[in-house]
Amino acid sequence: MSRRNFLGMVGMVGGAAAAYQMMTTMGLAASSTYTKPDLSGGGQGKTVLILGAGLAGMASAYEMQKAGYDVRVLEFNAKAGGRCWTLRSGDEYTELGGFKQTCDFDRGLYINPGPWRVPHHHHAYMHYAREFGVKLEPFIMENWNAYLHRKADGDKPALKLRLAEARTDMHGHVAELLTKATNQGSLDQTLSAEDKEKLLEALHEWGFLNRDGKYVQSLAVSAARGYERDPGARLEAGTPSKPVDLHTLLDRNLWSSILDGMFYEFRSTMFEPVGGMDALARAFESRVGRFIEYRSRVTEIKMDAEQVTATYVDASGATKTASGDYCICTIPLSILSQVKMTGFDAGLTEAIKKVPYAPSFKAGVQYKRRFWEQDDDIYGGISYTDLPNQLISYPSNNYFSGGKGVVLGAYMFGTDALVMSGMSPEERMKKVVEYNAQMHPAAAEEFDTGISVGWHRVPGALGCYGLYSADTRERYYPTLCARHDRLMLAGEHTSYWNGWQEGALLAATTAVDEMHKFAQGQA
User: Is the model's pTM score more than 0.70?
Assistant: First the structure.
């Protein structure tokens, strides 16, 4: 059973609160605990070496330079931002293995290969967005008019329905079963007579049941799940749609795709920066870019009693060193595990090597027209499928523009991501469009161009995010989070918000706090 399906079952039984608690227990989620760093006393006369200019590295640099520290940042790439990345027209990307792609999207269109949404409760992100004036717009996470799709499987035909249909039908069938169980006395040991009466009333409304406690085709049910033919003027009452039977909902695993909006991390309101997810990264870079030395590949980190020194290869190929009284290292563990660590205890070097990074694949597809809006009345949101591409996410902006549009045509994990990334970019895009066309037939003829990113083939990252198990979280995570004399690690891998920008920012601000206390002799 997949982790997502397990969490989905928890959500179905215990609701969103139970599912979120289980995610927290599994180390997959936690509430944001952002507190603005307190660097009172200043850092004048002290130097800080920061490795990596993603959000964690730049947030660290931004806060420490404000306090008077002399900051120096080494960054592997030719630009800042790390996994906070947006691809636009003219951008070029070369992955490990040599495949080179050029983004040919029309002007103003883009795809976010890394983070692509921001929950409203990610307070560290919101703090910096407000401080820097980064404009946000709603990201439509949950659209009840988007599709659930199941591929043909043996004697089972392909199936496509709206999220509203599947969700309403699941409510209705479960409400009918509970009503039957309640009337048969199965809950008499649990409910008082008064509670039974109230529960039956609630189930009737919640499940759109008729007066006999049945979930059946009717105009009342269609008012929730949608109509076969919509109501119109005068005598056009509308034609009721036919519910999907419970067996099909369970047999085709349709219930598993109606849960995302319940989870705390995906709950409305979700946001995205106007114009692309790299807006916050560019805002940080405009403030700390003068401290960054780009195209610097770190090969060794050495700590002694006085300082931390990084050996690196610069853009010209020359080997150089950079030192600081203190060091905040934000290099992903997938890369850091290949860097020589000198002067550190064996526990840290072991922990760095024990956390794998999730393989993930994304494909941005530009279509000649916005057929999902024009043909299917889908404005933003996500459609889900059991095909390898897993989903299609529609743009949450530029509605009714009449021109081209870019969708996230695939967001894949695990083996599917590895298989897709092993193809050439042309083969990948052909496959993604083929998958998209099984949900939207117009995709085949409307395809224009596209670009794809397999994260385990991204130089400087080699994976999407730190992938903890219960064992590695217990055994190695405390070591990775601790200060090691003059060095601290930071990044999404040192937070419970794995894979989120919030995790990187929280890790950075807490590292800054801890390192400042150490510099002040308070730790």
Answer: yes
